Amino acid sequence: MFVLFEEAGKYLGGRVLSEAEASAQVELETGKRVKVKGANIVLRFEKPAPAELMAEARALAAAMDLDLAWEFAAEGEFGFADLAADYFSDKPTLAQQAAALFALFEAPHYFRRAGKGRFKKAPAEIVQQALAAIEKKKAVQAQIVEWAGQLAEGVCPPAIREQLYKILFKPDKNAPEYKAVVDAARATQRPPLDLLERAGAIDSPYQFHWRRFLFENFPKGTGFPALAAPAVADDLPLAEGVRAFSIDDSQTTEIDDALSVQGMGSGTITVGIHIAAPGLALTPGSAIDAVARARMSTVYMPGYKITMLPDEVVDTYTLLEGGDRPAVSLYARFDEATLELQGTETKLERVPIVANLRHDQLDAVVTQPWLEDATFNSDNTPDAAAKLRAPLSFLFRLAKHLKAQREVVRGKPENFSRPDYNFRLVGNDGAEPTGNEQVQITTRQRGAPLDLIVSEAMILANSSWGGWLGELGVPGLYRSQASLAPGIKVRMGTRALPHAGLGVKSYAWSTSPLRRYTDLVNQWQIIAAARHGKTAALAAPFKPKDADLFSILSGFDAAYATYNAYQGGMERFWTLKYLQQNGITELEATVIKDIPNGALVRADALPLVFPVAGQQERGARVRVKLGEIDEIALDVSGTVLERFDVPQADAAAAEADSGEDDEEEVAGPIAIAVDLSDSETAPDPTTTAPA
Asked: Where among 73, 92, 122 does a domain terminate?
C-alpha cells in the first residue's frame, strides 16, 4: 500500500512498511524510511506509484481554474475530496483528488487551511486584495527583469539613476531598483559599480564623489532655511587704542580672528587676540544654533566650501575691515625685552578692524628679512602691510619665542619638512565645480612668517582660555595628547589635559566660532567666564558632566573626520586630474612605508601617496612610472624605474617627525552595499501572497 502524507509543509508519497494504531513506517522513493503520524496521512492507494500519482496530480492542479474552484467550494469547512467532487466529477479519480489537494494547499489567497486536508474559503474581499497584490508583484518582477536587461545592454533606466546613491550605499534590498542592479550584475558577471558606470548611471567621477558625499551627509541639500542673524544685545565698550588686523587667504569669508599690538617702546607690550563673537548674539537651542550643530563645521574642498553658517549670519559677525566688530578679546602682556608673559585678560568689546591682510598676496613681501630688518625694503609693498610693519615684526619675534618655548615642553622641535599645497580651479570663482576645470597646484612652505604669527597667536589663545576654563571649573571641549609616543593620538574630551604634540598644558579650540561648532560652544563658556568670573560654572550654558556636551563632542568628532576625509579625497581627485591635464606619466618620489608586495611612496612635488610594486627601503628616492588612473577609486599605482640614492637615516627620521601620521589614506576599491547574494531567484508571486 502507498500513502500520500504531509511532512514539514510538503506532501510526500511512499510505500507502507508497517502500521500501528497512530503511525506508520513509510519508505520514500529515495529509500529513506520515516515514521509518519496517522493524522498526517491524507490518501491511501494501491496504485499507481507515488511519484507517478504526484506528477499527474500536479499537472492537473496547474490547469485548475482557481476562481472557478473558489466558486464551487462549500461555504463552510470542507475537505479536498469534496472540492474534487464538485470541480471534476461526482467520483473523482485518485489523481484528481490529489490535484485538488495541491491546488488548495498552494493557493492560500483563495483557501485557508482548517486542518490536515481541510480548508475554508477566504472572504471575497481578501481574495480580491490578494489577487491585486499578486498582480502588483508580477508587474514589479516584470519591471525588474526589464531594468536588468537594460543595464546589461549598457543603458541606465531613469529610476535607477535617481536612486543610484541609495542603491550603492544605503539600499532597501527589497526595492525593485536594487534587485535589478543585483540581477544585472549577476547576469553580466560585472561588478555593480562597473556595470552602472558602463551604463551611464554615473555622470562623471567628480559628480560621483560629490553626490555620494551629499547623499551621506547633506541628504536635504546644502541650502539654509531663511534665518535672520540677531544683533548683539550687549552695550559693548569700544576697545580703546586698538587697531586690529586679520591675516587670511583671499578666499576666506569667515574671518574669525584678528590681532593687535599696543605699547611698542614702552617696555610692556599688549598683544590682543580678537575673536569674532557670534556667541554674544546666538544662543544654544536657537534656530541658527540648530543649523550650526547639524553641520558641526565648514566643509572645505578645492575650489568650493559648504559653510557651517549662512552667508548672512557670517557677514553679521565676521571681522571685516572698516568697522567696529563685536569680539571676545584675549589681551596678553609681555615684557618687551625678554618676551616674558606677565598676564592675560579677557574682554567682551567692539574692536576696530583696520585691515584684512591676505597672505597669498603678501608672502612675497612679508618675508623673514622684511620682518627682522627695518632697513630691508621690498618692492611694491602694499600700504596696509607697510603701516603694520612694526606690529607684524614684533608678532613675528614673539611667535618664534613662543614656538621655542613650546618645543622645550614638547621635548623636540616641530619639523614641517613638507610644503602645503594650494589648489586653484581656473575660472571657478567659488562656484560649485563640475570636475572638468583646469587645476593649478602651487606650494607654500609651512611655517611661513605670516602663518607662524597667526598659528602661535591662536595656540596662545586656545591654551590660555582652556586653562582659564579649567581653573574656574567650567567645562569645555578640549583636544589633548598624552605623549608623543608612537600610536598616541590626539583626542577630544571635556577636561583640561595636556597636549604633548603642541607642548601646552591644555588646548580648547576657541578661535574659529564661525567655522567650527566646538569653538562656538567654547565661546559661550568663555563669555560666561568673562561675565561671571568664579561663579561662571553656575551660569555657563553647559554644566559639568552635561550629557549634551558629550553629545556635541561625539557628533563633532564624527563629522569633522568625515569632512576631512572628503577634503583629502577631493584633493587627491584634483591631483590625479593635474597629472592627466599635464600629461605627467613619471614622478620622483620617496619611499615612506612597506606594504605587502610593494611599498608606499610620496611624490616629491605633489600631494600624492601611492603604491609601487616591489620592496623598497624606507627613505629611498625613486623615479616611478605611473599606471592607469582610476578616478572613481581615486587610485593610481606605479613601477619603479630608477633608484636615485641610498636611504638617508636623517631623511627617514624627518619624515617620521613631520608632525603627521604615516598611516596615509590611500585609495582603493569603493565599499558599496550591493550584495550579489541577494535576490538569487525571484519567487513565484502566486505562492507568497498573504494567507
From this structure: 122
Same domain, 479 and 623: no
Instruction: Note the pLDDT tens digit of each residue in 515-537.
Output: 999 999 999 999 999 999 999 99
User: Do 585 and 602 meet the contact criterion of CB atoms below 8 Å apart?
Assistant: no
> Which grid cell sits at 668?
582603493
Q: Specify whether 274 is located in the same domain as 162.
A: no
Whether residues 546 and 622 fall in one domain: no
Q: Per the structure block, which three cell numbers stand in for 255?
A: 574671518
Residue 409 and residue 291 in one domain? yes
CA distance 39 to 302: 76
Q: Where are the alpha helices (DSSP H) in 326-387?
A: 359-362, 368-372, 383-387
What is d(CA 376, CA 398) in angstroms, rounded to the nearest whole number?
A: 20
Name 124's Cβ contacts closer than 8 Å, sequence gap at least 6.
none
Q: Is 338 exposed, middle or buried (0-12, 13-18, 19+ CB in 10 A)?
A: exposed
Q: How far is C-alpha 111 from the chain's CA centre?
A: 51
DSSP string, 80-133: HHHHHHHHT-SS--HHHHHHHHHHHHT-TTTEEEEETTEEEEPPHHHHHHHHHH
Same domain, 612 and 491: no
Are residues 446 and 541 both part of a single domain?
Answer: yes
DSSP state, residue 366: S
Do residues 388 and 523 both lie within one domain? yes
Whether residue 577 is contained in a domain is answered as no
Q: With respect to residue 514, please indicate whether it lies within any of the assigned structural domains.
A: yes
Cα angle: 376, vertex 379, 384; to 5 degrees: 90
What's the predicted TM-score (pTM) here?
A: 0.80
Give the per-residue SS3 of 485-534: CCCCCCEEECCCCCECCCCECCCCCCCCCCCEHHHHHHHHHHHHHHHHHH
Q: 540 in a domain, yes or no?
A: yes
Look up cell 503520524; give the residue. Answer: 37
| C-alpha dihedral (57, 59, 63, 64), degrees to nearest 10 | 10
Q: Show the cell assigned to 271.
A: 598683544
The CA distances from residue 544 to 237, 285, 310, 415, 537, in Å, are 31, 18, 31, 37, 8
- The C-alpha atoms of residue 492 and residue 483 are separated, in whole angstroms, by 14
Task: Determine the structural domain holding residue 176 and report its residue range.
Answer: 139-202
Question: Which of 185, 202, 219 delimits the end of a domain?
Answer: 202
Query: Do residue 280 and residue 413 come from a single domain?
Result: yes
3-state helix, strand, coil in the chain (%, to 5): 40, 25, 40
Question: Percent of the chain having pLDDT more than 90?
Answer: 73
Which CATH number does the domain housing residue 614 bear? 2.40.50.140
Q: What is the pLDDT of residues 354-398, one digit of tens each?
A: 999 998 888 889 899 999 998 888 778 888 888 999 999 999 999
Has residue 339 been placed in a domain? yes
The answer for 115, left when phi > 0, alpha when psi is -120 to 50, beta otherwise, is left
Q: Which residues contact 566 (CB under 8 A, 6 or more apart)?
A: 209, 213, 217, 299, 301
What are 35's strand-pairing partners? Answer: 25
